[in-house]
Write a structure and sequence with these properties.
This protein has about 100 residues and is mainly α. About 50% of the residues lie in helices and about 5% in strands.
Length: about 100
């Protein structure tokens, strides 16, 4: 298998038998992003503004995988703009 075949694959977490801590996922699943956005009562157009991205980008992210930074951005939007407690936002984003 060539290195080009491995492009775009998410990092796999080591097995629990190895004793290594699990790694963070490389990307946020689009469905998680959509579910969090909806739980905040936001449209794609409303979410794009605090994230400084276009609405087309939000739609594209929700159809596939959003960039890794989106996890933190969604937590920030929920906490800073909608008053959701940090621990609640972390639970929403980490739910798969």
């Amino acid at each position: 298998m060539s290195s080009s075949d491995d492009r775009g694959k998410a990092m796999e977490a080591p097995s629990e038998a190895s004793g290594s801590p699990p790694t963070r996922r490389a990307r946020v699943p689009g469905q998680v992003m959509r579910d969090v956005r909806r739980s905040l009562g936001l449209s794609q157009a409303e979410l794009r503004e605090p994230l400084c991205v276009g609405q087309a980008s939000i739609a594209r992210y929700e159809k596939g995988d959003a960039p890794a930074w989106m996890e933190y951005a969604l937590i920030g939007v929920g906490v800073l703009e909608h008053g959701v407690p940090v621990d609640e936002m972390v639970r929403r984003v980490e739910a798969e």
